[in-house]
Structure formats: C-alpha cells, structure tokens
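Can't paste images in this forum, so I'm doing it all in text. The chain is below; anyone willing to post the predicted structure tokens underneath?
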Amino acid sequence: MKNKVRVKIDRERCIGDNQPCFIVAEISANHGQNFNRAISLVKEAKIRGADAVKFQTYTADTLTINSRKKYFAIKHPKWGGQTLYELYEKAYTPWKWFKKLKRIAEDMGLIFFSTAFDRTAIDFLEELGVPMHKISSFELVDLPLIEYAAKTNKPLILSTGMSTILEVKEAVRTAKMAGAKDIILLKCVSSYPANPKEMDLNTIAHMRKLFRCPIGLSDHTMDIGASVAAVSLGAKMVEKHFALSRKFQTPDSFFSLEPREFENLAKNIRIAEQALGHIRSGLTDEEKKNRIFRRSLFAVKDIKKGEVFSKENIKSIRPGHGLPPKYLNSILNKKARRNISKGVPLTLGLLKPK
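Text version of the structure:
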C-alpha cells in the first residue's frame, strides 16, 4: 500500500506502518480488587515486555442494572450462576486507583489507557489525561458512545468481536463523522477463552485494505501462537489479558497469560518482526560466507594426464572450490590436461583443449 498508515500515540510512539507491534497487557479484573496487586501487575507488565497497560473503566451500575430477571442471568462455564451485576461488582476497577496507577505506569515508560464503557467513563478518563480511548467489542454497536469518544479527538481503538462487517463500517463511519482522525481496529473473537480455529487471522489483511487504518488483535486464546501469527500477517497491536497467576482466581484469570508466558509472547513477537524484515533478493552477509560450502566438482581419485573424466573419478561434493555441478555432464568423457591428484577442485584449466 502506497500511503503509510500510522497513528501517533505520544511524542515518541506510533502504531502502524514501519513501527514495532504495540504490545498491550490487559489488566482487566486480574487485580482482584486489590490495589497492591494492581501495582504489581503494572510493574510486571513492564518487566515482561509490554508497551502499555490497559484497564477497564466501569462500575456495575454503568454497565447494567441490579436485576435477577432471566435476561440478566449468565450462562457460561466460568461466569455462570450469577447475574451480570454480580459479575461486574467483582470485576470492576475502583476509579480512585486510576490516577496513581497511571503515574506508576508512565514513570516506568508504559502507556496507560483504558476501555470506556459509557460517557461518564470517557469524561473521567479525559480528566485523567489518557492518550487514547478504547471501545470494547460489546459496545461497538453503541454508536452514541463511539460518537462521544470520537469527539475527544484522541486516537480511538475499536474492538470488532461479534460484529458483522456492516456493523464495523457503521462504527467507523460514526467515529469519523464525529471527528476521529485516528482509528485502530482490533480483530477479535469474543469467546472466553477463544478457540484458535475460529480466529480467521487472514481477515487482518482484508480489514487493512477495507478500512485503511492500523489493524491489531485482541487475543483471547490461551496461547501465544495466534498473536505471533497475527503480527506476521500485519497486526500492529496485540492485546492480551495478563495475570500474576491463574491460581489467584478472578473473573478473567482463566484466559489470561502469566508473566513468563507474556514475556514469551513479547519475545516471539519481536523475533517475528525481525524475521519478516524487508523484501530483498540475494544473499545475506552470512550466506556469502557460507557459499564456499556448496557442492562443486572435485577429483575423487588420482587422474593421469590424458585420462578421461568419468563418474568414478570426478564427483559433485562439498566444498565449493570447483566448477558448479551443472557442468558435470559436459565434462564427462573429456580428457585431463595434466595429472590431477585426488581432492583437487576441477577448473576449466584442467580440461584438455579439443
């Protein structure tokens, strides 16, 4: 694509073309509503290779109502047996934490941002001074919320799980009409955990072509393979849920990466980026050194002057000091110009002229 697609986050960092993948540790509910654990998660995320930490800004009352009617009951292997309100009461991050967490993260060189679930959250995060906003997959159909977030004129990240292409188009159009100039779309499967077979990562290139903006991945699979593959397919942002330990059970811990796993994720993303490199033909410097170990034609027996070259006395072997193997058939049945000892590479000068 001729035009570079890039979103500026701060003075030093961008997300998009010719930029390293932006790796986000999604803290979500994994603090277990323990402030010291939240601080530890931020610090550990930095150590393990994250570029940013992301929280979620809501309360049970900003997401739903306290009702036990059947509409609010959860049916899920891990979350079932409770209402939405009861789940969010356990999972939300106390808003009074955010200011200090942001300062700690930024002092460590991390970008701090959050998913906003309603207007009050956006107002709160604006007062906090976050550099960008995120809208979750479940809120992608909340066009008034997207419009409100877009009017901040800050980069807007839209997660696209559960959405049809028409719904994504509508969300993007709404954001742009409200003034959003910088949009990042995240390919996402909103299953917890997600099945790798359902990720359909080839959609990333299609989304990039269709929307002409950076595309990333919100990855809910239980391993790192999907995220690394996504980077090789053009993902410029990867978001993974992060926990200190899955043994400390929170609403999101069962599909989150532990520190060593997250470190492995970040390491392999950087390896993938290095391996992708640039479009180039020809040899690397190391390959040039190793060309000498290619096969070439050698005398494998002592050959007397005038003796005919045959498959018994010359062969294609390593190393590459002799003529290339492609000349073998044209040399067979020709005569030696002089005595040639075993182990001497063949050159044209060793062939008797006609």
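The chain has two domains: 15-276, 285-350. The mean pLDDT is 95.
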